[in-house]
Amino acid sequence: MKLPQTLLEKKHFPVMLNEVLKICLTKSGGIYLDCTFGGGGYSKEILNYPNTNIIAIDRDKEVNPIAKNLSLKFPKRFKFHLSKFSNLDNFFNDKIDAAIFDLGISSIQLEDMSRGFSFKSKKKLDMSMGLTKLNAIDIINNFSENQLKNIIKIFGEEKEAYRIAKNIVKKRECRKIEYVYELVEIIEQSKKRDFKKKINISAKTFQAIRIFVNKEISELINGIIKATKYLKPGGKIVIVSFHSIEDKIAKYFFKNFSMNQSRSNKYLPEKRLGNPIFFEKYFNKIITPSSKEININPKSKSAKLRYAIRSNTPFFEPVEFRKKFSKYIEMENIND
Ligand SMILES: C[S@@+](CC[C@H](N)C(=O)[O-])C[C@H]1O[C@@H](n2cnc3c(N)ncnc32)[C@H](O)[C@@H]1O
Predict the structure, then answer these.
(1) What pTM was computed for the model?
(2) What is the CATH number of domain 133-213?
(3) Is the CATH number 3.40.50.720 carried by domain 7-106+216-332?
């Protein structure tokens, strides 16, 4: 049965689709976890292969119609859960063949101006992907100057966070900051212009607030630990990341919990750190989109794909991994 594509689906190009399929698909089919369903790009393609089953998750209720369409077409092989991937273990008991995390926001979310993800929006600040306690308006208007500075500095890696936070607080003393353009104006007034820089002057602050609103780092850490627990030996975990904090976390996890574990110097003998081993030998290889893909979909430019293969060692709670990134986790939870 061929069902019409919804307008939403047409908006998002799945990043490195062929690469993801090549890594994940097995001849015998299997159970695949699409942790970031979005426009369903990966799920739809995987379902074209025989004996494949998908458990898909997304926190954004806007993708419900896309998921519904797919469950009508594949009622037995496709299940969707409106949830966060930190809860993924609530949705199945079986061991899985692959877990895919395509992080960040989709074009569906970015191009919907009412959601306030884009600095071009004329609408209110929001930046929630769904299932969040707070939105950007709450944070910008209620958090202390020091908290704002830390959020912008830590999650946006923004050197001028201090001035931006100071000016947010100054502005909101006169009136509530509600609109995207108000925040953009404050950032523009706070930052020195550097015309050599290719990224938008607001990009880092917007990234920081979005990460904080959606607790993206805690989500990622919890999600990949849980996915690892449910992977079959030989099963793959794939992470497509779009900023350096995400990639740092993926790299650390794969490198330090793999057969070879971390080596400070490639000429030194392999050193066991005493961490539990989840993955087979990890080659620290980053896969990036081809120039052809970047031409068709310029948004894919910053994507980095890493994957690891589950070994047959039993699962342990990787305490050391959480500890390594506790600065981010604690920061995301300052308001809880
Ligand atoms: C880059 S898009 C995925 C696009 C998808 N691979 C496709 O081909 O259409 C990321 C999606 O993940 C969702 N998402 C991000 N963080 C999530 C989380 N912690 N739990 C569940 N969904 C999440 C977002 O709502 C968004 O729809």
Answers:
(1) 0.95
(2) 1.10.150.170
(3) no
